[in-house]
Amino acid sequence: MAIEQKLRSVELPGTRRPGQTGIYRRTGFENKPLLTSPPTFPHVTTIYEAFQNGLRISPHGPFLGTRQYDPVTKTFGGYVWQTYTEVSDRITRFGSGMVKIHQDVHQLAEPAQRWTVGIWGINRAEWTISSEACSAYNLATVG
Question: Is the pTM of the predicted complex or chain greater than 0.85?
Protein backbone atom coordinates (compact mmCIF):
# COMPACT_ATOMS: atom_id res chain seq x y z
CA MET A 1 0.00 0.00 0.00
CA ALA A 2 1.46 3.36 -1.02
CA ILE A 3 1.58 6.10 1.60
CA GLU A 4 0.80 9.58 0.35
CA GLN A 5 3.73 11.88 0.98
CA LYS A 6 2.84 15.51 1.64
CA LEU A 7 5.48 18.17 1.67
CA ARG A 8 5.81 19.70 5.11
CA SER A 9 8.25 22.38 3.99
CA VAL A 10 9.56 23.80 0.75
CA GLU A 11 12.82 25.44 -0.23
CA LEU A 12 12.41 29.10 -1.06
CA PRO A 13 13.58 29.82 -4.61
CA GLY A 14 16.88 31.69 -4.90
CA THR A 15 18.01 31.04 -1.32
CA ARG A 16 20.49 28.22 -1.93
CA ARG A 17 24.18 29.22 -1.67
CA PRO A 18 27.35 27.25 -2.46
CA GLY A 19 27.98 24.82 0.39
CA GLN A 20 24.61 25.58 2.02
CA THR A 21 21.04 24.47 1.70
CA GLY A 22 18.34 26.93 0.88
CA ILE A 23 15.93 28.45 3.37
CA TYR A 24 12.95 26.23 4.07
CA ARG A 25 9.48 27.40 5.08
CA ARG A 26 6.38 25.49 6.11
CA THR A 27 4.12 24.56 3.21
CA GLY A 28 1.47 27.25 2.77
CA PHE A 29 3.65 29.96 4.33
CA GLU A 30 6.19 30.34 1.55
CA ASN A 31 4.99 33.81 0.56
CA LYS A 32 3.78 35.08 3.91
CA PRO A 33 5.84 37.53 5.96
CA LEU A 34 7.69 36.23 8.99
CA LEU A 35 6.27 37.30 12.32
CA THR A 36 8.92 39.53 13.83
CA SER A 37 7.21 40.41 17.09
CA PRO A 38 3.87 39.76 18.75
CA PRO A 39 1.26 42.11 17.23
CA THR A 40 0.26 43.42 20.66
CA PHE A 41 3.89 44.08 21.68
CA PRO A 42 5.72 45.46 18.63
CA HIS A 43 8.60 46.67 20.83
CA VAL A 44 9.42 43.09 21.90
CA THR A 45 12.05 41.68 19.56
CA THR A 46 14.41 39.73 21.86
CA ILE A 47 14.15 37.23 24.71
CA TYR A 48 15.45 39.93 27.06
CA GLU A 49 12.74 42.36 25.92
CA ALA A 50 10.08 39.66 26.35
CA PHE A 51 11.09 39.12 29.97
CA GLN A 52 11.30 42.88 30.62
CA ASN A 53 7.83 43.30 29.13
CA GLY A 54 6.43 40.66 31.50
CA LEU A 55 8.21 42.34 34.41
CA ARG A 56 6.69 45.70 33.44
CA ILE A 57 3.18 44.28 33.08
CA SER A 58 3.15 42.00 36.12
CA PRO A 59 6.09 42.67 38.49
CA HIS A 60 4.52 40.74 41.37
CA GLY A 61 2.91 38.07 39.20
CA PRO A 62 4.17 34.49 39.06
CA PHE A 63 6.89 33.85 36.51
CA LEU A 64 8.88 30.76 37.41
CA GLY A 65 7.48 27.76 39.26
CA THR A 66 9.27 24.84 40.87
CA ARG A 67 7.34 21.74 41.80
CA GLN A 68 8.33 20.41 45.20
CA TYR A 69 9.28 16.73 45.53
CA ASP A 70 9.27 14.77 48.78
CA PRO A 71 11.91 12.01 48.51
CA VAL A 72 10.54 10.22 51.59
CA THR A 73 7.00 9.77 50.24
CA LYS A 74 8.16 9.91 46.61
CA THR A 75 5.37 12.33 45.77
CA PHE A 76 5.16 15.71 44.15
CA GLY A 77 3.50 18.60 45.89
CA GLY A 78 2.36 21.92 44.55
CA TYR A 79 4.38 24.57 42.81
CA VAL A 80 6.30 27.30 44.57
CA TRP A 81 6.33 30.41 42.40
CA GLN A 82 8.89 33.19 42.06
CA THR A 83 7.61 36.54 40.83
CA TYR A 84 9.00 38.45 37.88
CA THR A 85 10.67 40.85 40.34
CA GLU A 86 12.29 38.03 42.33
CA VAL A 87 13.57 36.35 39.18
CA SER A 88 14.74 39.69 37.76
CA ASP A 89 16.87 40.20 40.87
CA ARG A 90 18.35 36.70 40.55
CA ILE A 91 19.05 37.28 36.84
CA THR A 92 20.89 40.53 37.60
CA ARG A 93 22.93 39.03 40.43
CA PHE A 94 23.84 35.88 38.52
CA GLY A 95 24.60 37.72 35.28
CA SER A 96 26.76 40.39 36.88
CA GLY A 97 28.57 37.67 38.85
CA MET A 98 29.33 35.72 35.66
CA VAL A 99 30.66 38.84 33.98
CA LYS A 100 32.82 39.73 37.01
CA ILE A 101 34.27 36.21 37.33
CA HIS A 102 35.04 36.14 33.58
CA GLN A 103 36.71 39.54 33.85
CA ASP A 104 38.79 38.48 36.88
CA VAL A 105 39.82 35.07 35.50
CA HIS A 106 40.99 36.61 32.23
CA GLN A 107 42.53 39.65 33.99
CA LEU A 108 40.57 42.11 31.85
CA ALA A 109 40.41 45.82 32.64
CA GLU A 110 36.90 45.97 31.16
CA PRO A 111 34.28 43.23 30.78
CA ALA A 112 34.66 41.29 27.53
CA GLN A 113 31.87 41.44 24.99
CA ARG A 114 30.11 38.61 23.18
CA TRP A 115 31.52 35.51 24.82
CA THR A 116 29.66 32.21 25.14
CA VAL A 117 28.32 30.41 28.18
CA GLY A 118 27.67 26.68 28.22
CA ILE A 119 24.62 25.59 30.20
CA TRP A 120 24.38 21.88 30.84
CA GLY A 121 21.52 20.53 32.86
CA ILE A 122 17.93 19.47 33.00
CA ASN A 123 15.07 21.94 32.78
CA ARG A 124 14.79 23.70 36.09
CA ALA A 125 14.52 27.20 37.50
CA GLU A 126 18.29 27.65 37.69
CA TRP A 127 18.65 26.82 34.01
CA THR A 128 16.05 29.45 33.10
CA ILE A 129 17.73 32.07 35.29
CA SER A 130 21.12 31.28 33.72
CA SER A 131 19.72 31.57 30.21
CA GLU A 132 17.87 34.82 30.99
CA ALA A 133 21.05 36.23 32.59
CA CYS A 134 22.96 35.51 29.40
CA SER A 135 20.28 37.32 27.39
CA ALA A 136 20.39 40.27 29.80
CA TYR A 137 24.18 40.59 29.45
CA ASN A 138 24.27 39.92 25.69
CA LEU A 139 26.03 36.57 26.05
CA ALA A 140 25.49 33.62 23.72
CA THR A 141 24.45 30.30 25.24
CA VAL A 142 25.46 26.85 24.07
CA GLY A 143 24.30 23.57 25.44
Answer: no
List CB contacts of 74: < 8 A, sequence separation 6 or more.
none
Q: In 3-state terms, the chain is what percent helix, strand and coil (to 5)?
A: 30, 20, 50
Q: Round to whole Å and give the CA distance between 71 and 55.
A: 34
CA count, 13 A, side-chain hemisphere, 111: 13
pLDDT of residue 7: 67
Distance CA 10, CA 102 (A): 43
Domain ranges of the chain: 36-142
User: CATH topology for 36-142?
Assistant: Rossmann fold (3.40.50)
pLDDT in the model for residue 6:
67
- Rounded CA-CA distance 49/55 in Å is 10
Of residues 64, 55, 65, the one with CA closest to residue 85: 55
CA gap 90, 69 in Å, rounded: 22
Task: Give the closest residue to 47 by CA, choosing from 120, 142, 131, 127.
Answer: 131
